[in-house]
Amino acid sequence: MEVESAPTSELLCYKNQNNNNGTALGHKEVTAAAAEEDGDGDLQEEEAGGRTSRYGYAGGDDPDVAETNNGNGLPQVEDFDDDELEQVYRTVDSQRSATVQWMDDDEIERLDLSLSIDPTQIVFNRVDSADIIYQAKRKKCKLVGKYVMGDVLGEGSYGKVKEVLDSETLSRRAVKILTKRKLRRIPNGEQNVRREIKLLRTLHHRNVIELLDVLYNEEKQKMYLIMEYCVGGLQEMLDSVPPERKLPMHQAHDYFVQLLDGLEYLHGRGIIHKDIKPGNLLLTLDHTLKISDYGVAEALDEFAPSDECTTGQGSPAFQPPEIANGHDVFSGYKVDIWSTGVTLYNITTGLYPYEGDNIYKLLENIGKCKWVAPDWLESRLADLLTNILQEDPARRFSLQQIRQHEWFRCAPVATCPLVPIPPLKGDALRRSTVLPYLEAHHYEAERDLANVYFTEHDINGATSATADSPFPILCLQRS
Prior knowledge:
Among the domains are: 8-96, no CATH class; 233-423, Orthogonal Bundle (Transferase(Phosphotransferase), domain 1), CATH 1.10.510. It has a six-stranded antiparallel sheet with strand order 7-8-9-10-12-11. The protein has a three-stranded antiparallel sheet with strand order 1-2-5, with helices on one face. The chain is built from 15 helices and 21 strands. It is of the alpha+beta class. GO terms for molecular function: ATP binding; metal ion binding; protein kinase activator activity; protein serine/threonine kinase activity.
């Protein structure tokens, strides 16, 4: 009978410390379909007495272990029926209770698990993952220009946003990291980024995100936009209060007033944002609102006779009827005003004035413009929203009319606490993510991170640990 040797990759060996003999199990299943697919004409399957030559077992003292095929050092394969094979599995399973052995770094480095060694000497022990001891990952301090990089704050279609520290002023900043490779995949990606940089360089207002610096890395084809640091966004805050996903009226009123201040500044400089929505409204630690993301914004010509625009690229749910109906020309300012109305309705009710099962149905519903304020909505707010969400842009409220409205001028009384800015990765105080990198860089020798180890128990305990220390480190010191 022709004997087939099991490939090295398919040998699993278990060793019990109480038994000096190793037990090896080789498993090779061959089907006619697999043989045909692989195109291997030499692969044969023999059947004798209802048994198939596809399972092999070699005990520690079995003389077959010494026999090999083709000089490759692998044990030969024997035949087993189902009962014998089941006994083999039971034997192997009974030897899986091996204890964990400590191996230091030098011993691990000396291990050579390449295919060149005798596979009968390879030992695998089944252990509980919670008992595995890990070595703490070193935090590498990385600088881009004068900025020390921290952890990722968020990620969008254009790239990642990380926290950075200005090494000269020690100010917390945020950096938007853009790669040319990713921008080329996005329609008008590079054009939108250039437009955003050009606009942001000219904008300086309390409620408009400020661009502080732009760095280029030609070798890595990366662009770094250094901006004001914000601890969260309005959409993130709404998502943190399910199922209503809305804010207290007095808190929503405060944010809406700030939104109008920033929008009035932009319109005064001839800039139409085109994508006002909670996801593009960021917040600082003191709840100052910042209008961000100017990728689809448009700057009107200084001598333009009107605010007419011809392109609308904002988020569908926040677009006005004139864009939903495909008008070629429309008022840019009134587009932004409509979006502020949808935003106000969303943050006060958790709903949208128009919805749809898909984008086509959504735009169809917006185009029909049959929204009526619900009866349960506060009367003054309902009146303001009705005048903002007018189908005819000429009848739609202007910024000045919104400011003169009773709901805008009379802030609602605070009847409940503010919704807090949600914590970042479990840190409610939003501590700087840059400091651990600086600590690792300056005190690495003193702390000797090479001897800091931890287990899954420590990782699970970290989520419930108190955050009294700015750098809580749960670890298992090597004895």
